[in-house]
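Example record

Each entry pairs one chain with its bound ligand, zinc ion.
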Amino acid sequence: MADARKLGFVPFGTPFKGVLIIFCEEGLKLGPATRKALAPAGDLVERVASAERFTGKSGSALDIVAPAGLSATRLVVLGVGQGRRLKAQDFVKLGGTAMGKVPSAATQAVIFAELSGGALKPDQAAEVALGVQLRAYVFDRYKTKRKEGEEPPAKPQVNIAVGNPAAARKAWQGREAVADGVVMARDLVNEPANVLFPAEFARRATVLRKLGVAVEVLDVPAMKKLGMNALLGVGQGSEHDSRMVIMRWNGGKKSEAPVAFIGKGVCFDTGGISIKPAANMEDMKGDMAGAACVTGLMHALAARKAKVNAVGAIGVVENMPDGRAQRPGDIVKTMNGQTIEIINTDAEGRLVLADVLHYVNTRHKPRFMIDLATLTGAIIVALGQEYAGMFGNDDRLCDRLTKAGLASGERVWRMPLGPEYDKMIDSKFADMKNTGGRYGGSITAAQLLARFVDKTPWVHLDIAGTGFSSGQSEINRSWGPGWGVRLLNELVAEHYER
Ligand code: BES
Ligand code: MN
Ligand code: ZN
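Structure tokens for the complex follow.
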């Protein structure tokens, strides 16, 4: 996988060089193996800590260059607060923080996975490793020149010192699959639209076949035959033909209905004839973040051989203005026979999802459907970049997602649906129109989707705010966070694996 650091687990006693990173609890409390490793340095940490008034508070750190008496070139002490309060997600963040302290010129680093009470559990050490791997990701494949002081990172060997390396390695296996899925999603989001057009996206999805995923790609004639005119209308102004990709991972019982994930894959959204203003339009190369998440999730599930049957379906198009482009006022007929009046060609994501949702619902009869889409600017106004908007027809599924969000750190906030909102998309000329006006813009978008899901438990996640980021979190410094892969992996692992 691109940019993956060399990561290993070693026993505490292993001699170390390079950067040494240790965890310290409030009250300057260190673990026994850590104290042993620091013994040759005497009371160095105590002296530096008192000079810097460092006590081990969460988020604080000491960075000691060329620590006297140690073979390390640098000693980093990370404050973690009260160790017993740390949850899985905190260990992931710690791994990210630790990796962030490794200078880009370093070739080696070792992280002591220990708190004052002793070695971290294998699962906890593996969470640290996940954070390391996610923080290490960079998307720099288009940089051909570097300024001085901006040399390419050395990609260091990072070792995690643990009590039981074999057990930590075992715990890491599943998380490594998830990390690879996140990296895949990030690469797809970061990739520019002149490289990642629908056919290329579909080709990249077919690579999942190597992991045992069945991948089916439908081209324009195939979708025409099915009557997917809402999806096709969005792509008709582009030189790049649309695709739908269906990925299936069968790791569960033969008889069991699959869980289904559906992604909006608008490789570039100009707005179409209702063209967007120029400012920040380049961000619209990421309007396929929902589809990227679904693809990365299918990678994760297959790579860790999840005991579940899962379908991932993505509608992949490019929304361009052109002589053949769809116009405001046009009326399209969807795969399930409903008609939609196009008011604004920039409200294209819901048109793509309408057909894909109906396709998945009728073909695969799933236990539930969860769609992800960078659907509305309005959800960014409502929730910022911290929570994705969640809409759904099933309280239990929503509750499970809320919990999975808190556990994974990819959080969701439930928003309302209802007949009053549904009325707002009734049309004078057709069954519905594709926008509901300025008020409640994220809700009326979700109401349109709801008209294509029937009774199946369904959740729509509007990830316009979370799908691309400033890249300032502990575990991500790139523009595309790969948001949702860890959330949905957590949901599946907690509730849907046999
Ligand atoms: N892809 C955009 C939504 C978006 C905006 C995502 C900003 C990420 C950042 C979507 O296709 C769109 O253009 N939505 C319109 C809908 C409107 C025309 C009803 C919007 O939100 O303005
Ligand atoms: Mn749009
Ligand atoms: Zn869009």
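The mean pLDDT is 97.
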